Amino acid sequence: MGSLEGRVAVITGGGRGLGREHALLFAAEGAKVVVNDLGGSAEGGGSDVSAAQSVVDEITALGGEAVANGDSVTDWEGARRLIATAIDTFGDLHILVNNAGILRDRLLVNMSEDEFDSVINVHLKGTFAVTRHAAEYWRAEAKKGVEIDRSLINTSSGSGLHGNPGQTNYGAAKAGIAAMTQIASKELERYHVRANCIAPVARTRLTEATPGLGQVMTETIGSDFDSWHPANISPLVALLASEKCEFTGHAFRVMGGEVGLYQGWTVVDQVESDSRWTVEGLAAATKHMPAKAESKVSGKHAEKAKANRGE
Ligand SMILES: NC(=O)c1ccc[n+]([C@@H]2O[C@H](COP(=O)([O-])OP(=O)(O)OC[C@H]3O[C@@H](n4cnc5c(N)ncnc54)[C@H](O)[C@@H]3O)[C@@H](O)[C@H]2O)c1
């Protein structure tokens, strides 16, 4: 019996990349899957429901159960329809994986209003919109006395948790998604909902286009363990989705065979005064603190990426 037997899942952006791998693994583990995908370009333009439908066809050909949805996660009514599709088709909703995403990278000084708004819209508002409608259903079920484990899995990024130059829009959205996950885990616990997010790294059309990274990611193709393969991300997502999992409120970093647990913003040093600081007094007291902030990422892939950047 699969780890997701009888569970109903919605996966946004499930037509390609990571979302497609999540959908295929979820179905193989016994879940009934609503594969959502707008089917647009990597920058968010256009739409094509065949992206979601082709994954549904793959799943059904393997004997699984799935249905396609082509709504945009940014559309409030579309997000409502997406959640309703799960309930109307499969009778319930246990798992929501917010994964849909686009990229419109630009240095802050050159970024246009549209580049900022569109990325915030898909990632931050899109994650909120679908979660909001799912939460309404989960609250109603809990109020009826149904005590079933529900799992929300959001997709953050190292870009938001560590800060990636060129991604003011995307990084801000992804940091916001990590915060939204923590809040959801606290607010929705009473409705039996666990909430976690992942910060993945894998070869997809989004990373293939990243200068320097795209080339490195193809080097493992054909090797015994293709560590950049997008399917490497999905076992963690399936684990977080499974009924037996107890994790909530966490962010995980996942790439290849590495799965790391993040600790959120943590106060690591402090100065104290019994009265209000003067500016000069505070300057003197904080002199020992590092002038420049650094974020730490461990693991052999991170070390390799650092070396590639010449750090
Ligand atoms: N690939 C990585 O290394 C990496 C790293 C960090 C975070 N992520 C995140 O993982 C998620 C999946 O990205 P991917 O790398 O698989 O890219 P991808 O482009 O292969 O897949 C993203 C999918 O989302 C869909 N989508 C975009 N906008 C949508 C919308 N408004 N409504 C519904 N669907 C929409 C796209 O059509 C696409 O099929 C994204 O949130 C991305 O930011 C990926």
Automatic annotation (TrEMBL):
Q: Where is this region: Disordered?
A: 290-311
Q: Which residues form the Ketoreductase domain?
A: 7-224
- UniProt entry keywords in alphabetical sequence: Oxidoreductase
Q: Which domain of life is it from?
A: Bacteria
Q: Which GO terms describe its molecular function?
A: oxidoreductase activity
What InterPro entries does the entry give?
A: KR_dom, NAD(P)-bd_dom_sf, Peroxisomal_Beta-Oxidation, Sc_DH/Rdtase_CS, SDR_fam
Biased composition, class Basic and acidic residues, residue ranges: 291-311
Q: Which residues form the signal peptide?
A: none
Q: What protein family is recorded?
A: Belongs to the short-chain dehydrogenases/reductases (SDR) family.
Against PANTHER family, the record matches this protein to: DEHYDROGENASES, SHORT CHAIN, SCP2 DOMAIN-CONTAINING PROTEIN
Q: What is this protein called?
A: NAD(P)-dependent dehydrogenase, short-chain alcohol dehydrogenase family
Species the sequence originates in: Rhodococcus jostii
